[in-house]
Every structure is written in structure tokens, then in C-alpha cells.
Amino acid sequence: MAARKKTGRRHPLASAALLIIGLVAAGGASVAVGSVANAEPAPAAHTQATAAEGEALFRANCASCHGIDAEGTPNGVSLIGVGAASVDFQVMTGRMPMAFQGPQALQRDPQFTQEQSDAMGAYIASLAPGPAVPSEEQLDTSVVDEEGVANGAELFRINCAMCHNVAGAGGALTEGKFAPHLRDIDAAHIYEAMLTGPQNMPVFNDQNISPDEKREIIAYLHYLDENPSVGGFDLGSLGPVSEGLFIWIFGLGGIVAVTVWLTSKPN
Amino acid sequence: MSADQSAHQESHEVVVHDRGAAIVQSDAFENPGLPPHRPRQTDLHPEKADRAERTVVWWFIASMLGAVIAIAAYIMVPIEQGDMASVRFNNLFLGLGIALSLLGIGLGGMHWARQLMSDHELVEERHLTRGSEPNRTRAVEIFKLGDEESGFSRRSLIRNTLIGAVALMPLPAVVLFRDLAPAGNAVDVLTHTMWKAGSRLALDPSGTPIKADDVTIGSAFHVIPAELAEMTHDEGYLDQKALASVLLVRLPLDRLNEQPDRAGWSYDGIVAYSKICTHVGCPVALYEQQTHHLLCPCHQSTFDVTNHAKVVFGPAKRPLPQLPITVDDEGYLVAQHDFTEPIGPSFFERLHYVDEEKHIPLSSAETETRA
């Protein structure tokens, strides 16, 4: 003991520091490798969006699951009547084409350009009438005043918060499905999701939530994006799960550490 | 070793009385005593003691600094009217200052005690629980004297009325606690909602009535009675909403698996179920439009809307009560009458309040017979 003291003791936090350095290095390497693997070149941009081009794209990329005339197969639902709004949402959030069959289509980088997606939307819309992509005017949240934002918040709490969390942080559903978080989502995609009810999300048609109210909900979600949590560090806004974990590890851990320090005999 | 301590030592010996073989054993556990005293570095090296002293002083100075920071933060980072973000920095710096001033005193004091104050071990023997004989005799005397002087035993009328008064004293609390139950007839409040024959189903919170055409397949409507939207907070808006909330969905007719005698309760595939979980009353509103499952976020009870909201998973024991609906001559969805059974979690004698005339029990009797 005495000899060790002379040669210089290892700092008590040295092993913890080493562990953290190791974890950070391993995590960083995995993220770097993952992003390289996902970086596929985007397909060349088409300039004109026509139903004919959309049909060609559909046949090449979607028909294997949704059927050659979008009539549906056991692996994919019929797309007749889903409208251009549904195509824009599914394709431009990267949910379609689906990476693999699972409880829920996962979000990834969009595999098509906006023009290609619009072309496919035009093709699907030409099959049967369905919800159209919302106009610029419907998405213009700058006209929503503070009262509108508050109204949007109330509508969000009544219609959306039970699945998407009151702070839009997302939440779990049954059997591996989940409601995704709603942070920094494009206004058009929020609107289209309400209008078309992708996957297990219910449809909120214009009789249920009017276009003006949809715009207010979007304005509220943008308000959440732009305004930091008043309570400070929000721990992901996941409520008692993350807060409880934090207080058990750091709160109780701190108390245990202080207790050990208090009762130890100094050198 | 004092006489008291030697008596204490003897008590450790187990004496086995003579039953043929006399064995006298000493207690197997021996007091290991204290470890040898080890001087601290601060005891051995005066310069280390000086350094520890400076550390303590710095903690106390840090505490003073914390108090100053807290006052300065309160003045310099005020909460601005209408700027919620200012609350964050006000609280943050105020909290950091107060924490530093408290922790500085605590940590400084502990460091002082650990490093500089005397650290000689000492033993304080635990005294016996039983008092000494003279003390016990004296206590009995005091009680007897008190009894004699007050006449507690002699004046039995006073004693008995006192006991009566003390016994009655907690009763007002019981009466007050009783009022924690809903005002009026508690059972009536629990067993009826605002829904009545002809109540229009309306959007929450605007109160816009809903037409059957509006409810497209895959939609989920969060519904209140149209009359509720006109109520004010003081008239019990929230109480009534907590009872009357309903979820309205339309199922494709081929997915709807209705019991024939309940077919009259739905309208063209549109069904309405109470949103209050039959487990402990959370709002069940996580509707999955492809599986038609309704999930309760509190304890993951899952109800199958295609099968009269029967429980398919979780701790709930009963299906969600169904609101019988139809349309009026203007095409708006209306209730046929109130729920036929009490909504929400079970309570004693719940089955007594099921409307025998109108209720149509589900054939899956297993869930219905449980209260």
C-alpha cells in the first residue's frame, strides 16, 4: 500500500473514464460505418412529373407488392383511391419502398426525388380520386395567431397526444408498432398523415379536423420545435420513464456516493 | 474492568442446567473489539493539515459566493412577463446559487470533521431498556398519587364522560372524509352519464355534431354529447366529460363481427364505445386503424373493436361499454339512450346497476359475470 502510494496511485475515476472513452469510440465508429452504408446515390432527377412517368416508376419499384395495377397483393395493400397525399407522405418520408416486412414500415432516407414522387402520386391519383397533396396556402402557418396555436394544442391533446405523446415525443403501441415522434417534421407530411392515416394511424378527415384546424395543429408542432422546454433539460419528454431512470441512476447514485464518502475513513 | 462490565460479560455465557450431563459453554461469538487506531495523513503531516484547513475554508467561501450568486441571479435574471424561456434561466441560476451555498457548508463541514477534528474511536455502551428498580417504584408512586389527587378512579362519572368525549372526537373527520365521495347520490353519479335518447354525438371540444357520412372508414372521432360543449367549467364540465367521453369509429362491414341482438346498437359499421377503461378508468384512445385494436396507455389493456371491444390483452376484465347509436332525420348521429351499464372501473354491486330492460349481454359470458 505504502509503496504504491509513492509510485503514484491510479486516480479512482480512471477506470470509469477509460470505460466512457471506449464506449464513445465504439459508438462513434458504429455510427460512421452505418452512415457510410446508408449513403446511396439518389436516382437522377426527372424534370416533368406526369402520370405516365409515374406509372413506369410504379411498375419498376412498387408493383411487386402493390400489384401491377396497384390493385394490391397479399404483401401490400391496394393503392386505388389512396390519393397523391398518401404517396407523397409514404415516399418522401422514406417509409416506402419498405425496407423489410415488419410490424411497421420504418422511416429512412427518401429513395426518390420529389419530382419522381409527384409523378407516382399523379399516377395513383389518376386511378381513382383520393386526397390530394395539400396546397401551399393550407400549410402556411404564418397566418395562425397565438390563439390558433393554443387551439391547435388543445386539438393535439384530444386527438393526437394519446399516441404521439403530449410533447410530440412519440410512444409505443401494440406488438412492435409505435407512434413516431413529431419533431421537425415537414408541414406537408404532418398534414398528409392526418388526411390519409398511414399504417395504423386513424384518418382525421376534414369533417373531423377541418383544414384550418389541421393548420393550427401544425403551427403548434412548429411552436414545440422552435421553443425550448420551459422546464429545462426535458430528458426526451418521455415522462416518468426517462425521468425515473435519471433520478434512480443519478439522484440515488449521488446519494449513495456521498454516503460512501461520508462514512469512509480518510487516509 | 468495572463491576458493571464484568456482569455484562457473564451474561454472554450460556449456562445449561444439569439434566444428567453438566456442560458449561462460553458464547461462540466473541467481541472482536476495535481495530487499532490508524493516524490520518493530516495527523502525521502538519502541512497536509494546513492544506485540509484551506480546503475547508474554500468550501465555506464557495458557500458565501453561492449565496451572492443566488441573490444576483434573482435580480439580474428576472422572470419576464410573457417570456416563458426566462423562467428557465432564472430558475437555473437561482438554483445553482442556492445549491452551492448549501453544499458548500455541508461539504466544508464534512471535510473539516473527516480531516481535522479528533478521530479517536470511542464506545458508548447501550443502556438497558428496563429502568432501574427505584425509578420504576417511583413511577408507580407518581401514577398512584396522580390518581388519588385527581380522583380519576374515584369520580367514575368524570372518567367515563372523558372516555366518551375522546371516543367521539374523531367522528367529525369521518363525516368530512365521507364528503370526498361525489356530491349527491354517489352510486347515481357513477352509474349515469349525460347521454340520453336523442343526444347528438359531437366533436370534442367544439361540439360540432357529426353526420354519419363524415365518419369514413379508418377514422377515429373523439366524441362528447352535444349538450356537454355548452356546459361551463363551474357546472361540472370536466366531471361530465370524464363520464361521457366516447370513441367513434367506422369499421368495414366485413370486419365487424357483431352479435345479432346487438346489431341495432351500431349504424352502418359505425360503433361507439366508452373511452373510460374498465380496469382503472384511464382514457382508452390509442386506436389502431388496421388491427382495430384499442390500447389503454396506462396498463396496456387492449380491446378488439371488431368484437364488441372485448379484452384481448391486459388487466381489464370487461369489454368497454357500448353506446347504442342511430341517426336522426337530419343525418346526424345520436344516442339511442344512455349506456346500459355503469362505465369505467368495477365497484361493489356494479351488476345491480345494469339496466335490465335495455342491456344486451354479450354471449362471451365469462367476462360479463365478473363485476
UniProtKB/TrEMBL annotation, chain A:
Q: Which residues cross the membrane?
A: 245-263
Per UniProt, the enzyme's principal EC class comes to: translocase
Cytochrome c domain location: 49-128, 147-225
Q: Where is it mainly found? A: membrane
What UniProt keywords apply to this chain's record, in alphabetical order? Cell membrane, Electron transport, Heme, Iron, Membrane, Metal-binding, Repeat, Respiratory chain, Translocase, Transmembrane, Transmembrane helix, Transport
Topology class, membrane: Multi-pass membrane protein
Source domain of life is Bacteria
Q: SUPFAM superfamilies annotated for this entry? A: Cytochrome c
Q: Where in the cell is it found?
A: Cell membrane
Catalytic reaction annotation = a quinol + 2 Fe(III)-[cytochrome c](out) = a quinone + 2 Fe(II)-[cytochrome c](out) + 2 H(+)(out)
What Pfam families does the database record attribute to this sequence? Cytochrom_C, Cytochrome_CBB3
Regions annotated as coiled coil: none
Metal-binding listed as a keyword: yes
Q: What is its EC number?
A: 7.1.1.8
| PROSITE patterns noted in UniProt | CYTC
How does it associate, per the subunit comment?
Answer: The cytochrome bc1 complex is composed of a cytochrome b (QcrB), the Rieske iron-sulfur protein (QcrA) and a diheme cytochrome c (QcrC) subunit.
The protein, known as: Cytochrome bc1 complex cytochrome c subunit
Record the organism: Agrococcus terreus
